Amino acid sequence: MSEDLYLEQLKLGPMENFVYIIGSKSTREVALIDPAWEIDRLLQHLKQEDLKLSSILVTHYHPDHIGGGMMGQSIPGIAEIMAIEPVKIYVNKYEAEGVKKVTGVSDSDLQLVDSGDHLQIGENDIEFLHTPGHTPGSQCFSVNKNLVSGDTLFINGCGRVDLPGSDSEQMYHSLQHLCSLPDDTILYPGHHYSEEESATLAETKKQNVYLRVSDIDSWRQIMG
């Protein structure tokens, strides 16, 4: 990990979501990844740690990751942050409409990105990786051999592909793409669905059966 990289994992909400703070130790500038649930606590934590929020990064538009209505409840998230501290929201271009619909933010709040785009925070270069499957515009964030994967890849599984907008075959190709990253990359998933809170890709490949499917025909048979 880069000496300048600030990376913190926080477990919030009843669905054991992981929210991430990522940025620069030297400049104290940070982004929030998938902020939802305990927004007051998040903002207070930034203040206590003398961190300046400069952006929000979205893995995908589901309300448990960015706030909005879900299962009869209203989840605090991006809209509440924007009302207090408006910043640019970095979202994959295929996910923009979903994010606007769920959170009520406007086009001017969004910075649309594509796979291979980059965001610099201090000495740290964050690369956006488009990984469709769970949703059309799902994306992961790669920085200094760390991968924040949202609901694309978990340590022991992958995101659901039976939801509106999901696509099983896209998920297969997205997982293959992530498998091509260096084995010593540290995986940081979107939920605490396993005993470990993070793992190397090498460790993940050993225990995650979804990463051991050798071809698309076998994947189709397994996923139905």
Q: Kindly provide the name of the CATH class.
A: Alpha Beta
Order of helices and strands: EEEHEHEEHEHEEEEEEEHEEHH
Calculate the terminal CA-CA distance, rounded to whole Å: 39 Å
Overall pLDDT confidence? 96
Q: Approximately how much helix is present in the residues?
A: 25-40%
List the topology elements.
Layout (H helix, E strand, L loop, with lengths): L4 E8 L4 E8 L4 E5 L5 H10 L3 E6 L5 H4 L1 E3 L2 E3 L2 H7 L3 E5 L3 H8 L6 E4 L4 E4 L2 E7 L8 E5 L2 E5 L2 E2 L2 E2 L9 H12 L6 E4 L9 E2 H7 L8 H8 L1
Parallel strand pairs: 3-4, 4-7, 7-8, 12-15
Antiparallel strand pairs: 1-2, 2-3, 5-6, 9-10, 10-11, 11-12, 13-14, 15-16
Helix pairs in contact: 5-7
Describe the structure.
It is built from 7 helices and 16 strands. It is of the alpha/beta class and 224 residues long. The chain has a single domain (5-223), classed as Ribonuclease Z/Hydroxyacylglutathione hydrolase-like (Metallo-beta-lactamase, Chain A, 4-Layer Sandwich). The strands form 4 sheets. A 6-stranded mixed sheet has the order 1-2-3-4-7-8, with no helix packed on it. A 6-stranded mixed sheet has the order 9-10-11-12-15-16. A two-stranded antiparallel sheet has the order 5-6. The longest helix has 12 residues, at 168-179. The protein is globular. It starts with a strand and ends with a helix.
